[in-house]
Amino acid sequence: MKIATILGTRPEIIKFSPLIPLLDQEFTQVLIHTGQHYSYSMDKIFFEDLNLRSCDYTLNVGSGSHAQQTGEMMIKLEEVLLREKPDLVLVQGDTNSTLAGALTASKLQIKVAHVEAGCRSFDKNMPEEVNRVVVDHLSDFLFAPDENAYENLINEGIPKEKIYLVGNTSVDACLRAKELFNKEKLKDFSLIKESYAVLTIHRQENTSSEKLKEIISSINTISNTVNVLFPVHLRTKAVIESNKINLTENVILTDPMGYKDFMGLLSNSKFVLTDSGGIQEEAVVLNVPCLILRDTTEWMHYVDMGKNLLLGTEQSGIVDSVTELLSDEEKISAMKRVKVNLNEGAPLKIVNTLKKVA
Ligand code: UD1
Ligand code: UDP
């Protein structure tokens, strides 16, 4: 069987990292990069850090509006898929690359498999929610990371024969690379283990100039109590620079990092403040309390369990929650004590399922 695996952004490279070598072993795999992420620090560094083979096609689509980016990806993907004639297209997550891959394949009547199917924030203002819903309804094989995702798909009327509860490849990506995490990286920033917070912000909803100013103002206040390390996504960097948004000297700004450095710093941190989807999952694997800078999340069960905390994006909510957390060590300890079953082994389950049913 010939499988075309499509990726385009940093989380897709990371979450596909344990699957790509397995797919190469078991099938003929054509690896296609849309080029949605293209800067070294958002793209190539992950292939190096995760020892991944190079892609067979790079479509160099780059940045643009949603329609431009998705449309250009579809035009270029159609050409490659017509040439390669795969039996199946494999996509992951909820980006425009995921949507373009699934939509192009289904219009060519090629079967689609979706890794991380069924996640829902129930917030259609997120471009990712639109992508997730459309991709799931186009897919022939849906690999759900957990029971919540499985139930979401059933509730939307997707036949259960198409859904496979396999776990989360992010867990395996993390465990596969764990030995490589750079736990010494904190010394470069003169930080002390478990005495600093990591911050990431990049969601479209959080990077309008007004919203970003409000979030950063809260971070400036928090940084009077705890040092904050902020590896800045390139979308966010552009907004900070063009609006001349000021950060205090206790907020350490750096470029986006590779996986080994980032995960080394995350694992040594006291807590993480983030609007990332992937970091919510990784924080659970590393047992680092995760404070979510969003109103909704597609990983709500971790919040319901008391493992992660949903802060919202209003200044008062963020500052009050962090102040409360920092004033009582027991609150952080309680979050760390919540046990989560990580359900390792998703990549192998996906490959074995495809061998049987696709
Ligand atoms: C995309 C995904 C989002 C995912 C994120 C992972 C969509 C709709 N969004 O958001 O779900 O969480 O990737 O990081 O697919 N840029 C660069 N160099 C790069 C990449 C981006 O400079 O290599 C800058 C450009 O200014 C670009 C902006 O970042 O316009 C946004 O990039 P884009 O890929 O459109 O969206 P992300 O915010 O990265
Ligand atoms: N990440 C990284 N370096 C950074 C920031 C994030 O390696 O400077 C990794 C992080 O470990 C996670 C992934 O990037 O695996 C998350 O990507 P992002 O937050 O951009 O996207 P999302 O998960 O929200 O789609």
Could you characterize what this model shows?
- There is one protein chain.
- This protein is α/β, with parallel strands linked by helices.
- It folds into two domains: 2-167 and 343-357, Rossmann fold, CATH 3.40.50.2000; 183-337, Rossmann fold.
- It has 16 helices and 13 strands.
- The strands form two sheets. A seven-stranded parallel sheet has the order 3-2-1-4-5-6-7, with helices on both faces. A six-stranded parallel sheet has the order 10-9-8-11-12-13.
- Helix 3 (44-49) links the parallel strand 2 and strand 3.
- The mean pLDDT is 97.
- Residues 10-11, 14, 200, 202, 231, 233, 256-257, 259, 262-263, 276-279, 282 line the site of uridine-5'-diphosphate.
Helix and strand arrangement:
Layout: E1 2-7, H1 10-16, H2 19-26, E2 28-33, H3 44-49, E3 57-58, H4 66-84, E4 88-92, H5 96-107, E5 111-115, H6 127-138, E6 141-144, H7 147-155, E7 163-165, H8 169-177, E8 196-200, H9 209-222, E9 227-231, H10 234-242, E10 251-254, H11 259-267, E11 271-274, H12 277-286, E12 290-292, H13 300-304, E13 308-310, H14 315-327, H15 329-337, H16 346-357
Parallel strand pairs: 1-2, 1-4, 2-3, 4-5, 5-6, 6-7, 8-9, 8-11, 9-10, 11-12, 12-13
Helix pairs in contact: 2-16, 4-5, 5-6, 9-14
